[in-house]
Write a structure and sequence with these properties.
53% of the residues are buried. This protein is mostly helical. The chain is built from 21 helices and no strands.
Length: 475
């Protein structure tokens, strides 16, 4: 685990006020960091939703319902193992060549991978039984690779251009891309759910969000190409302090910060994927065996009573709207978290929020079990906590590292956390749901354990608010 030595890697000095370069106006920085992560998360969520709603049937037609869902989630998890690789690749070039070009490359990679998912034939197409799922894995890997480099670059774009005392506030703008991207992607699915039949949705409707991403990518590229490098990176160049191998320098001199950042982010990841991917599966699963049997017979499959576990039985369109309402709270409290993390400090604020996540995990079964109303309350509480914990991450993780390895260090910590926090979350939650015979109490315990680990990491890490940022360059 992280130790208090994390703080010793960067001396606490007063922040230095440096005017923004004229080319990087406030509006351009904010919009560019926001639009990029919005596009990235829109693409990511489009896959996440499709992996629940249509991919089990389209790419695993011969599997049982539960095995098809698990297979779909397994491919969903491939991206999380690609993300650390993406953090190394894009982090290397971000610390060697600059933030701007790296951000453009990550956006193009995500956009192209998402577009090709949108034109991929299903496994039911003759000759594509094996090839379709295989290509889906490859494209999903590329999505994860791109997201592994995008977040850190967008966070640095905002925080390295922020005025003194405003890093946590400006850092919330790239974080807002997560709820905005989610709302756009899921609103599109809700609209299609209302206007398309089930067959039309499975035939072509699910492809529309993936193809639509091309328009968003074009806008993002246009804005990002107008940026110039931050003063922090230019100072690294001026002092000839560019790390020869950023990855080696990060793990040789700043490995404590990597461990600290990884576990500081852990509860955030587990919370998000439980309240999105898992609840969508659980919330829309049949509440009664008779309903599940009828659905299986309609689909031409054999109903396995032994493997049946009850869900909430909420209509798919209704639950998507419930998620969208919850994510509005995610967005609002992401914005609220910035000034609070600036006023009270990142560490103190996150200690309180993570304590709230722990309590939410203990109370999970009281909300996700009784019915629609209780589930709506659970989603609102969960997403409120999500906004409060996610918002300050764009400030605290980069602040753990000096400027010449900041892209690599923050990206690796963020994405290593995705491997142990986000990747297994949906899979483990489904297994715990099955083990509980329909009860989700164990799912809440899983979240509470993640929160405890994050609390330990925060207790062992010193405050980063007042550390020098621009002049913090490792020798």
């Amino acid at each position: 685990m992280a130790t208090r030595a994390v703080a010793e890697e960067s001396a606490a000095e007063p922040q230095r006020t440096t005017p923004l370069q004229s080319a990087n106006t406030r509006g351009r920085v904010i919009f560019s960091s926001l639009i990029g992560t919005t596009i990235e998360f829109f693409d990511f969520y489009a896959y996440a939703t499709a992996s629940v709603l249509v991919f089990p049937k389209l790419f695993f037609p011969g599997a049982t319902d539960i095995n098809a869902i698990l297979s779909s989630f397994a491919i969903f998890g491939v991206a999380f193992f690609a993300r650390p690789i993406g953090s190394i690749v894009f982090g290397h070039f971000g610390d060697k060549l600059g933030r701007k070009g790296t951000l453009v490359a990550s956006l193009l990679t995500m956009g192209l991978a998402t577009f090709f998912i949108g034109v991929l034939p299903p496994a039911t197409t003759p000759g594509w039984v094996v090839l379709a799922p295989l290509l889906l894995v490859v494209l999903r890997f590329l999505q994860g690779l791109a997201l592994g480099g995008e977040w850190s670059g967008a966070a640095l774009l905002a925080t390295e251009n922020a005025p003194a005392g405003k890093r946590a506030v400006w850092g919330t703008f790239p974080q807002l891309g997560a709820p905005i991207g989610f709302i756009i992607a899921n609103t599109m699915y809700v609209v299609m759910n209302g206007f398309l039949t089930t067959k039309q949705f499975e035939d072509f409707g699910w492809r529309i969000p993936f193809l639509f991403s091309v328009v968003m990518v074009a806008i993002g590229l246009y804005v990002r190409l107008k940026l110039v490098e931050s003063t922090s990176f230019q100072k690294v160049l001026e002092e000839d302090k560019v790390a020869r191998v950023p990855l080696a320098a990060t793990f040789k001199h700043h490995w404590r910060a990597v461990i600290a950042g990884t576990f500081i982010m852990l509860a955030t990841y587990v919370l998000f994927y439980l309240t999105t991917s898992f609840t969508l599966t659980y919330g829309t699963a049949p509440a009664k065996a008779e309903v599940a049997r009828a659905a299986a017979e309609k689909a031409g499959k054999t109903f396995d009573a032994a493997s049946f576990v009850p869900g909430l039985g909420i209509d798919r369109g209704t639950f998507l709207w419930m998620l969208i309402i919850g994510v509005v709270f995610f967005g609002v409290f992401t914005v609220v978290s910035g000034p609070l993390a600036e006023k009270y400090g990142r560490r103190k604020f996150l200690l309180w929020v993570t304590g709230g996540i722990f309590a939410f995990g203990i109370a999970w079964g009281l909300m996700f079990g009784p019915g629609t109303g209780a589930a709506m309350v659970g989603l609102i509480v969960g997403f409120t906590l999500m906004g409060a914990t996610f918002g300050p991450m764009a400030a605290i993780l980069p602040e753990l590292f000096p400027a010449n390895v900041r892209y690599t260090g923050s990206a690796i910590a963020y994405n290593l956390s995705s491997v142990i926090g986000a990747a297994p979350a949906s899979f483990v939650a489904i297994a715990l749901w099955q083990a509980g015979k329909g009860s989700t109490v164990l799912v809440g315990v899983y979240l509470a354990v993640a929160a405890l680990l994050t609390l330990v990491a925060l207790f062992l890490t010193r405050e980063t608010r007042d550390r020098d940022f621009e002049d913090n360059i490792a020798a």
